[in-house]
Amino acid sequence: MTASACGGVATPADDGRTRVVTTTGILADLARHVGGDLVDVESLVPEGGDPHSYEPSLRDIRDIVYADAAFSNYLLLEEQSVIRAVDANLPDGVPNVSLAERAVTYAAEIIPLVENVNLDTIWLGLRVRGTGEAAGATRSSEVRLKATGLAGPGDLIGYLTETFGDPTVFFDSSDGFDAGGGYQDDTATLPPDAHTHMSWAFTEPGVYHLELAAELIPTRESRPLDLGTTRITFAVGVDPHSVPGMAGATVLDAGHADVTVDVDRAADEQGGSIHLLADPHGGGGHPESHPAADTVVEVPNKALTEVPGDPKFRFLGRAGEDIHQLPQAVLGRHVHGEIDPHLWQNVRNAMAYVKIIRDTLTEIDPEHAATYRANAAAYLRELEELDAYVAATIAEIPPSRRQLVTTHDAFGYLGAAYDVSIAGFVTPNPATEPSLAERRRLSETIANLSVPAVFLEPNLRSRSNTLVQVAEEHDIEVCTLYGDAFDEEVSSYVAMMRANAASLRDCLA
Asked: Tell me, what DSSP letter sits at residue 185?
């Protein structure tokens, strides 16, 4: 989306203030504290919105076009269309600041995003490895992974379930693969150095061979760069060691794995750019690379499930019909990189953000530098007090009871900074009932750890029936915890962190 799409959207009145756009309401709140009355701040993602899935509007594009500075969190927190809108429409020379990435130089502490969700089957996602800088790629570039053919006894559908339960289909063999359209209806798109979760469904048992092709689009004006082709083999409800023509092949049957496109590896190199990157133990260790064409992914009989009754999932078949499915491991759209992007859950990291915003505003509006520095100094003192409050409040919880069970893995920094153990539960598919094994695992986690409460973000409460039901079975509370967004009751960063600390103390202690 570019500025030319803004026809019919009014130009903002020029009141002399510095115009700032941020991607989220949390960043907007920080910027308003630094800028004060001198700055007009607009958040692209609205109150209560999900930055992982928000699609920018024409009004958002207008705000970007007329901005004097833009602040994103990045580290792949925001939906790629939001980042692309900022990068494509921000005027030349206007600061475009990725706060999470720059915060390291301001003493922010970052932690890796280690995903250790255990499923009954292998967890299979998609990944782009590398930045593609040698080919001219940036954070706005995209890698396209296309399904170009399938041999098998039934249909294969690869899809993702959004945060609020709506499915997005990446691959669907039921209507064929259209080469004339560039396979656009069977294409998954990711930015460089990113990863996404997804579900893989199969309508009949047997052996499936999925043909894939990858290409890199460095810029909108660039010709696609071929990254090669490969074949992925799935053994669905049959012996994975007896696939015809694949004697001695590596079998992936547990842990985490990704169909991986390596954009820093030429397609004509031995093995090509597409491979399977697997962490067999699912603990975030050093993954093993396997040539995709020489690997079998097992979809065991315990992956048998029913098509949900929700009409939105009719692309899988009729409600109640049996399918085999490798489930999505994490609730919602969840494209991310190797570093946890939710830095602000540690107040010290939010202080680094404030310093970056201060220095940026001082650079673009030196006439009011003294005011920006004074505003920032006052706010940093408030954040110092906030950090002490959060630490002291959570310290009131006995260490053995500092166990956080929630639906969204947005609280790693809170756990690391304030000594809270993340014992989290995330449902593979928010639109279907979790399996008995998944419910049992959640129930055992709550019982074994004597967890007195579970926590939900306000905008996810209506989609978390299983967590609520299991909490009721154990006669424990369901409490509120804010992650990515404010709501009508909590509308500032300080209020959010105070509310989180108080909720943890009141519900766990």
From this structure: G
pLDDT of residue 295: 95
Angle between helices 465-473 and 436-448 (to 10 degrees): 50
Of the ranges 86-90, 269-273, 307-311, 466-470, which is most confident?
86-90
Q: Say which residue the tokens 């997005």 belong to.
A: 168
**CATH of the structural domain 3-110+345-382, one choice from 3.40.50.1970, 3.40.80.10, 1.20.120.450, 3.40.50.1980:** 3.40.50.1980
**How many CA atoms are closer than 13 Å to the CA of 372, on its beta-carbon side?**
22
Q: Which of the four pLDDT bands, split at 50, 70 and 90, describes residue 197? A: confident
User: Helices marked H in 199-262 — which ranges?
Assistant: none
**What dihedral angle (degrees, nearest 10) is formed by the CA atoms of 115, 164, 193, 181?**
140
Integer Cα distance of 328 and 352 in angstroms: 34
Per-residue confidence band for 460, with pLDDT thresholds at 50, 70 and 90? low
Architecture of domain 396-508: 3-Layer(aba) Sandwich (3.40)
DSSP three-state, residue 459: helix
Give the DSSP per-residue string, 8-68: TSPPPP--SPEEEEESSHHHHHHHHHHHGGGEEEEESSPTT--TTT----HHHHHHHHT-S
For 415, residues 6+ apart whose C-beta sits below 8 A from its C-beta are 404, 421, 422
Give the pTM: 0.70
Q: Cβ of 24: how many Cβ atoms within 10 Å?
A: 26
Q: Considering only the C-alpha atoms of the chain, give the largest distance between any 2 of them, rounded to a whole number of Å.
A: 74
Q: Distance between terminal CA atoms of the chain?
A: 49
For residue 455, give the H/E element and its range: strand 453-456
pLDDT tens per residue across span 31-44: 999 999 999 999 99
Closest CA to 326 of 193, 159, 82: 159
Strand order in the sheet with 167-172: 167-172, 156-161, 199-202, 322-326, 304-306
DSSP class of residue 76 equals T
Which bin fits 248, alpha (ψ -120 to 50), beta or left (φ > 0)? left
Q: In the structure, what pLDDT confidence band is assigned to residue 48 with cuts at 50, 70 and 90?
A: confident
Residue 57 tokens read as 């509007």
Query: Which of 116, 104, 26 minimizes the C-alpha distance to 71?
Result: 26
Q: Which residue spans of the chain are classified as CATH 3.40.50.1980?
A: 3-110+345-382, 396-508
Q: Indicate the range of 107-111, 259-263, 322-326 predicted with least confidence.
A: 107-111
